[in-house]
Design a protein that fits this description.
Blueprint lengths: L3 H10 L2 H5 L6 E3 L2 E4 L11 E4 L4 E4 L5 E2 L1 H9 L3 H12 L13 H22 L1 H9 L4 H7 L2 E3 L9 H7 L5 H6 L3 E2 L8 E2 L4 E7 L5 E8 L9 E3 L12 E2 L1 H11 L2 E4 L2 H9 L5 E4 L6 H10 L2 E4 L5 H16 L3 E4 L8 H7 L1 H9 L2 E2 H10 L5 H11 L1 H6 L3 H15 L3 H24 L15 H21 L2 H15 L3 H6 L3 H17 L2 H37 L2 H25 L4 H5 L2
Helix pairs in contact: 1-4, 3-4, 11-14, 14-15, 16-17, 19-20, 21-22, 21-24, 21-25, 22-25, 25-26
Amino acid sequence: MASGDSVSQIKERLTIVDVVSSYVELAPAGKHMKARCPFHNEKTPSFTISPDRGMYYCYGCSAGGDIFTFVQEMEGVDFKGALKILADKAGVELVQEDPKKKTERDRQYDALESATKFFEEYRTKKIDAQTYLKDRGVTTETIAKWRIGYAPGPPDHGWRELKNALEAQKFASVELLKAGLVKGADAGKEPYDLFRDRIMFPIFDPAGKVVAYSGRILTKDSEAPKYVNSPETELFNKSEILYGYDKAKQGIRSMDFSLIVEGQFDVVMAHQAGYANTVAVSGTALSDHHVMLLQRLSNRVVLALDADRAGIAAVKRAAELMLARGMDVKVARVNDGEDPADMIQKDVASFKTVVGHASHVIEYLLDILESQGLDDRTFKLKAREEILPYVVRIPNRIDQEHFENIIAERLGTTKDAIHFETERIAERLKEAAAKSTAQAPASKPKPAEPDLDPKMIVLRKTELRQYLGVLVDIFPEAQRKPLATAIETVLAEKLTDVQSSLDAKKTSGLSFTLETYIEKTPIKQVYEETVDKLNELMSLIAREEMRELTNTLKKAEVEGDDETMMKTLGAISVFKKKQSEEMFTGLLFGVEEIRKT
C-alpha cells in the first residue's frame, strides 16, 4: 500500500479540476466551478467544485469528497484502485505493499494475474490457438493488449495443468477455488481446472485488474459448451462488470456514445477497427448497474447485437432500462447470421457504415415488426402492444411526441390516435406499479418519498413516535425489552421521556386499536411491521439531519465561510459513513430477537 507521501505527491500534482474535468464539463461559478452531477440525473447543475479546497459536493444527491473519492465512485474501484489510477495520471511511483501483509482478496488478484500469464505463455506454444486467432482476424497487437491466452486441456494436455502450475507458485487449492480457477471434484479426487482447451479472454474490472475469464472452446469436435465463464466470486459480479469497460472509458467520453456488442470477440475486433468505445456484458443480461456505468460517461448508446431472436430480446431489455433514464438508444442493423466480429473481419468499412446508420430503437422495432409481413390490422395492434410501451418510458415529452408522429406515419393512422393509446398504456403501467407496491411484503421498509415536504416529515415522525410509544406496552412481554431498546436507540431518548411527551387523547384511542389489531393478526406479521416502522422513523430522522447539514453548507458557501464549509463537509462524510455502516444493519439491535418467535 502506498505511503502518505504518495498521496501527498498526487495531490500536489493533480488538482480537483484536473481530475473532474476529464469526466464532466465544468463551468465557472464565481470562485467555484459547477457541472451536471455524474452520479445522478439532473437538468440544472448542482455539482460544485471548490478548487481552493480540492473538494466537490452535489446539492442534489449529497455526493462529496476529494479526488480519491471521486475516482472511486466514477470508476467503481476501492481506494487502492483510485490510488493507482491517480498515481499513473500524476506520474507518481507507488511503494508496493509487503507481500506478507496481503489479504485474501489480494491473493485472489495474484492468482488470477498468475493464471493470465500462464495462459498467455501457453498460447505462444499452442500452434492451433495462434492459427485460430489469426484466422479470426485478431492482430498480434490486439492479442497483447487484451492479454488473450490459451488454457491447456484434453485431448493434448491434462485436466490440471493450471492447478499444478499455480500450486508450484505456492497458491493453495482453496485459493484457486475462491478465485474461480478450479472446480471441486467428487469425494476423494483432486479439484481440476475449470478452463481446458480454450481460448482465454481475461475479464478486467474498471481499474484494469483481472477478475474473471471467458473461455472459447478450441477443439471443434468437442462436446463441451462453446463458451465457459468464470463463476461469480468475491471479485467478480456479472451484473456489475462490463467486458472492455476498463479500456473503453476514454473512448466513450471522446466519441460520446457507447457501442454495446454481445461477445468478447466482438469487443476485441471492434476496438481493433477503431471503436475504442465498445463493451459487452459478461455472461448475463444488461443490468441497471451496467447502464449507470455507461451513462456516467455518455448519454448515447448504439447496440450492435445479433439479429436473431435472442439479440432482439436483448435490444428490448436495453431499451427498457435506458429509455427510462433519458438515454438516446440506437440500434445498428447487423447482417443476419453474422456478428460484429465477422463483419469487421470481412469488411471494416461496411461495419462502420452500419454503425453510422444506426436507427433509434423505436424505429428499429418498427422495422422488425414490419418485416414480419403482417396484415394491416395485426401490424397496428402489435405495434400498440410491443412498441408504444417504449414510447411511454421516454421521460421527455417532446421526444415522446416526436416518436408518436413517426409511429402514426408508419402505421397510417393519426397522431391523436397514437397519443391516446400511449396515454392509456401509461395509465395501465401506472396502475400496475401501484398495485405491485400495495402487494409488496410488509417486511420491506417503505422509505419516505424523495420530495416529501419537511412539514410532512415532522408530522410523520410524530405519528411514528406515538405509534411505537404506545405499541411497546402492548407488545408480548418477552420482546418488549428489545423493542424498547430499539426505540431509544433510534430516537436517542429514554422511553419514559418519549411516552410522557405523547398526546394523551390520541394515546388512549390508539392503545385500544392496537390491542385489537394484535389479537387478530399473526404475531410474526406484527413483528415485521414493527421493524418497518422503526426503519421508516430512522430514515426520516436521517433525512432531517442531512437537510440541516446541507442548509448549513449552502449558507456557508454564500457567505464564503470556508471553515464552516470544511467542517460541514466533514460532518456530512461522517454522517454518510455512519448511515451505511449502522443505520440499516446493526443499529436496531434486538430486532432479530423480535423476529424470532
